[in-house]
Amino acid sequence: MPTEVTVQNFYIFNSTLSKTEDDGAKKILFYYPEHEDENKKVLNVGHIEAVICFARNFNANEPCESLRTEKTLQVLYNAEPDFWIVITVSAECKFKQNSSESPDEHVYCTYNLQEPIYLAILKHWYYTFQMTVGNMTELMNDNDPDYLRLMLNKFYSKYLQSTDVSSHTFMDMFQGISFLPLDNVIHLYAQSFLNIIENTFQQAPVRAGLVWRATESGLNKHQTQLVYSYILMWVLPEIAKKDHLVKGNLVQQCLPNQLVGRFITNVWAVKTDSWISDLGKVPILWLNDENDKIFKSYRLVMYKAHHSIVCMFIKMGNPLTADLYNTLDQFLGTKLYLLSEKMKNTIEKTLTSKLYTERPAKFVYFNAMNLAIKNSIKYSNAISTINRPSEFNLSPDALRVLVDISSQQSCMHPTYSVMIKTSNDNWVAGRLCNSREIYIVLNQKLTKLYDVDSEIQSLCAQEFGTIFFYD
Amino acid sequence: MDDHNCLQLNEDPIQFVPASVSKTTNVFYDEITGQIITVHSGELTEIIVTSSTRCRENMVFKIEDRGPVSSIKMSLDCKILTMMRTALSVELMEIKENTLQSPYFLYCKFKGAKLLGFIWTGNNEILLISDKGVELYQVEGHVPKQRIIFSKSINLHVNWFIYSNHSKLLLLSMNSFGDFQPLHILPGNINKLTKLEVDLDTSLNIPNQSISERNIVMTTTYNILRILVLPTSQSRNEIIVYTLNKMMSFKKSHILKLTHNGKLLINVVDNLIVVHYQHTKSSSVFDIYMEAAKEHTISHYLPILDDLSIKRTIPREGGSHYVSHLYSSICISFQPNIIIDAKLGYLWRFKLNLAAVSRIIMDKCSLIDFLLLRSKSKDTTLEVLQNMILQKTSNLIEIGNVFDHLNIVYKKHLNNHIMNTGPLSNDYMIVAESLQCKVVIEQLDVYKHVFVKLVDKLENNKDDDDDKKFTVSILVEYIRSLTDNKITIEHFLYELLINCLVINKMYYQLHQMVQYHIVIDSKPLACLLLSLESLYSPAHQMALDMLHRLNTAHEEIVEVLLSKKQVIPSMRYMAKHNMLDHSTYRKLTEVAISTDNSKILHSTREEFVQRNVTSNDELDTSSRR
């Protein structure tokens, strides 16, 4: 039965900001919907605060993560000490109008809402906020709570507006990176290209990464993950739009040599920086080193040629000058174009050589170790358009079972295997081995467990022959 | 000795009695035997034979004067002194116990022919060249029973001739318009080769320009005979190179663009063509195996080294020095690398100072190409590489290009090696023939002389992050270049790469490299990865994948799983690969007991009971523990 998921509210608060009962509103740092009654806001926050306190009695080490009521599910995320991010979602079942019931009566199906999905969203948003704006505690201490409120407002209003929380399903939990099926030679070309950029422009960019629907990067894995999702969300749609624009904008006038590639500017970000006022702004991101926790701010300069984007992270201390842009452009243009073309050719070659036998099974593969994600959507589609995972076409029921399996698996190291028969006689299976997870939906009416198992085995053998996975 | 000069003369020149002693003294140099023969004419003609290779003591002979000597040579075995005084005959004198026997004469067969010269083409074979043709004779026996046997003659008009002993090729000038008849001299026979027409490109279209002996140099570079045609006063200021091809005919192949006019001397050093300009007192160096612009399939070369000057100071008695003018008209060059100052009585050999060259050629790729073509240049090449990388005098792009240049040669060398050990294949034959490089820089060389030092340097100053990154970049670049040339990468490079990535804490990059199979799977590397688990947890997964791909490492996989106390997964794995037997039972049980998990222990036992692998006694003993 179809379920309609709505976000009731979303708020961030810090209890330490309010000392007395009268200034309860002070502890709220962000609240959605904005025009909610002030008292209601305070009431809601207070309610959750009470729940947190109550739950602490049972386990002081692990904070409360969710609260289920008949109508809503509230998911809590304790991002930083004293900072809580809370989302409240409700789910309504849409029956065909039954004559016996009055049309106004709502039937809730909160049981269809699953905590892991929303917790994953909250975490991802938080980390993206950390990357694009900074650490909440520091922002508040360095400035004042109002400044933090402003920043949070900028960020979350944009994200709440542009993401459809209700459409998030099992597929969104991983925030994985799909790696390109490149051969070693091309990968070496890419690595060498990035090294050369870093080496040639030593005074400026510290790190460079390359995006061609997937990354080869000089960043660590969490940074890659965040930057990747940021680019997927904000940069790629912009490019699609801009490609249709008439040429001759300001950027091109100032940088007349941009023949092969071009810089991508004016991408949305909370904090941006411009090098010459009119020529477009570049986002500022906070990245930390792998070994220390200190965040440093970088300007993200993106350059696109052919189908590839190079992301260069330039330390804030180094000024962006028209000169730098020009040399970068001259340096990158043809090289990136040629590399990208080579990449495209090899990918097309590997795809044509790989004969895809149509299987009635669908799978999602995720490797927590390098955040690689892979699924049975055909690659050719994945290249031509940015696929939303929702096009995966699984029934909501199956997706929910998958979420359940995955949350089970996370506490069942090192190996785990489960096969579940759904109400419509299909099979949903999950396997965990060697830090890798695979989820399979078989649209087959199989009766024997043995058949299901052998079907899964043959799928694994076909797709994952080169890794140690469930022998 | 000045180390800054690219071209140097040897320290110990051969000294001989110079022509400046008296007006009646003449000096002859024989290219074939490498002997300098000084002739003092007088009432008693004195002949001094000096060997330029120092293989023999000077020989001194005295003979009665019978007129001026126009040519004098020793036979190849140095047993017969041959001289020419008239245009009619050659005089042969056997040497017995350092004295000359009485002469016998060899006359030209052609009627009315004027003798131009003679050549010892073999130990007992002598070739007479006259204006009416060439005649080959064999000299047998000893005085007084000597016999001269006629072998072969060819009748044709000859202006002058040049002979190359290396390829036994005689070039006859037939007229002054540039028509030549090459002859291949074989033992007892003469082969006529295709005629050579030298067409000097005369823009002025002057009909009677003549090509004289001075305009033609025959020399061997890169083991192939070449004819260099020097410019005449009317032609373009360039040297045209004709190359002898496999069909034994000469084809115009290269053009060397000269930078100065005037009289030239030509030498060849280490397959380089050295042009000395007497006018400007400078020298240019050409290498016809380097890349050059082509025009109608003929490569046009500019000098790779230009405006070099060679100076040589000769210590004189009393401590003063005399600067020899190598570019003066007194000096004469002989092939390949000999310069003779007949006035002072010195014979020098040229040599190339690679260290100086490597400082002069600024473009590193050209320099590497140049060095690889030289013999004995390996040390210099490695020095250049060290300098580029350790002293950071080059950027990454240049280093990458240099690696490419090195590895193209390396790949050819490897193919060549395959050809020598494996069955012959036609493709490899072509590669082997085109392989002219004398020096190959292999992976071990680069590893030993560059990377090890680079890593040492890193360990000495640990704080420099840029340096560390640079090391990784260079390694990746080298591996990229090797992969590009389809060369199998040796294990020690991978090990170094992984270690460098670990030093830099670039674990995610390491992960990607393993994932994209840049690092080729092997058991030692899998073990290395396993040891990195404490630093980077996914290394465990990578190692397992690698062992899995090897398909021969079942036992290792089980060990790895058991080390993580993954009893059930390893049992499953062993079952699949038929490894469950008595010998593994105890090990599995022990690990199962150590997990303190009764479920696992039970499953382990059940598995073995069902397989009937173990006896009940053993079960009992272990359960009592």
Tell me what you see in this structure.
Chain B: Pfam families: RMC1_C (PF07035), RMC1_N (PF21029). Chain B: One of its GO terms (biological process) is regulation of autophagy. The complex is a heterodimer of chains A (471) and B (625). With 471 residues, chain A is α+β, with helices and mostly antiparallel strands. Chain A contains eleven helices and 17 strands. Chain A has three domains: 3-173, Beta-Lactamase (2-Layer Sandwich), CATH 3.30.450; 184-351, no CATH class; 361-463, Beta-Lactamase. Helix content of chain A is 37%, strand content 24%. In chain A, strands 6, 7, 8, 9, 10, 11 and 12 form a seven-stranded antiparallel β-sheet that branches. Chain A has a five-stranded antiparallel β-sheet with strand order 2-1-5-4-3. The longest helix of chain A is centred in the last third of the chain and has 32 residues, at 322-353. Chain B is α+β, with helices and mostly antiparallel strands and 625 residues long. Helices cover 32% and strands 30% of the residues of chain B. In chain B, the strands form eight sheets. A six-stranded mixed β-sheet of chain B has the order 21-22-23-24-29-28, with no helix packed on it. In chain B, strands 1, 2, 33, 34 and 35 form a five-stranded antiparallel β-sheet that branches. Chain B starts with 6 loop residues before the first strand and ends with a helix. The relative contact order of chain B is 0.06. At the A-B interface, helix 5 of A face helix 4, helix 7, helix 9, helix 11 and helix 13 of B.
